[in-house]
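Example for reference:
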Amino acid sequence: MSKEITSRETDYSQWYNDLVLKGGLADYSAVRGCMVIKPYGFALWENMRDQLDRMFKETGHVNAYFPLFVPRSFLEKEEGHAEGFAKECAVVTHYRLKANPDKKGELMVDPESKLEEELIVRPTSETVIWNTYRDWIQSYRDLPLLINQWANVVRWEMRTRLFLRTTEFLWQEGHTAHATAEEAVVETRKMLDVYEDFVENWMALPVIKGVKTANERFAGAVDTYCIEALMQDGKALQAGTSHFLGQNFSKAFDVKYLSRENKQEYVWATSWGTSTRLIGALVMAHSDDEGLVLPPKIAPLQVVIVPIFKGEEQKALIDQKAAEIISELKALHISVKYDDSDNNRPGWKFAAYELKGVPVRMALGARDLQSNLIEVARRDTKEKLSVSIDGIAGYVKQLLDEIQENLVNRARAYRDAHITPVDNWEEFKQVLNEKGGFISAHWDGTSETEDKIKEETKATIRCIPLDNPQEEGLCIFSGKPSRERVLFAVAY
């Protein structure tokens, strides 16, 4: 098959689009800025979602669902939150259409259906959830309240890219309530650790944990913690955030509890979330010019077996052996497909599954049956080996583990090689333009300097790493004293 994939070196942006479209993950939709997630892409999201959901429940969280629509007055109650999301809101003003009497077949807004209060299509759910929590929380016995929601949200983006930034996307958002600030901070850090665990051990993508500056903080948060990943083009991508909200939302919505000391106290809040943007990160971190490269732990399909035969007699023998292998693989909870369709030749199938990033491809022919061997090809290194059919399931299980480990080690080596300490402004610009990646540099701690660096270079402070070593130095831009280095990068 002709893949016609643009190379990374030629045009990284087009390479990414080619993989998403031709790899069968998603497609453009008729609605501006929105995407259609295709079955293969949705299967990938389901695997990611299901594992994250297990991890959330293991930490004591339960799922619920809240309305898609948020009354405008709710959004306005927390000033910082309202200001942060105002420009991204889609607003519902009417609830009915009617036939246009002047033009047959055309519909028009019914002016009599104007809403008394405008509704915002959910950009995030803090406000509608905290309005609900006011009724759910009465005393310390109701705390902590640990709730997660799987949902879609709408943020009206001017420039969109499949998975990375779309007007509508899928995500999860946790919203928890606590009796003390200390408990809420522990929750915030705990969920950041959950995200790190998932992204590194399931997506095979190493991340740096840190806290955002005031400029980059979530609207309405006291502190925003994040995990930052590095893509193959040297740009950073925020892979998940966890926010300590303090009492901002409990005060805005008057959510109090009766303490053990019989006093009325405002509760302390957190929120945390990650989204289908992770699929974009996955594509950009691991894939190559031949197609997608997917980590075995979350790949929709881990193994494909392609028969090679001449005539129905050969095929019958291969079918029988393939069925035995498939049974052994499934007993080890390995997802496998036997592609004996007759619409394309084996070479076409090989290329198709390479494009889709299936971790292991196996080819079984008549000669293989005679020699009791099967060809096994791994997607990450493209290495091919002839392996004994005896014990093949155990071999494949071990191979999948090796592929998973190789992907994370490869991504970590790239990430670590692209963390560059610099000590002056000229060196900063040179590294940013010629090498990219994370730049470790001193910053004077002011929003003014942060804004000027972004204005001149498009680089932002991705995070202040957690447990950051204190180091006296001078800000690379202003020359003012600095107590620690922070990580800069150009980001998606």
In short: The chain has a mean pLDDT of 96. The longest helix spans residues 392-417.
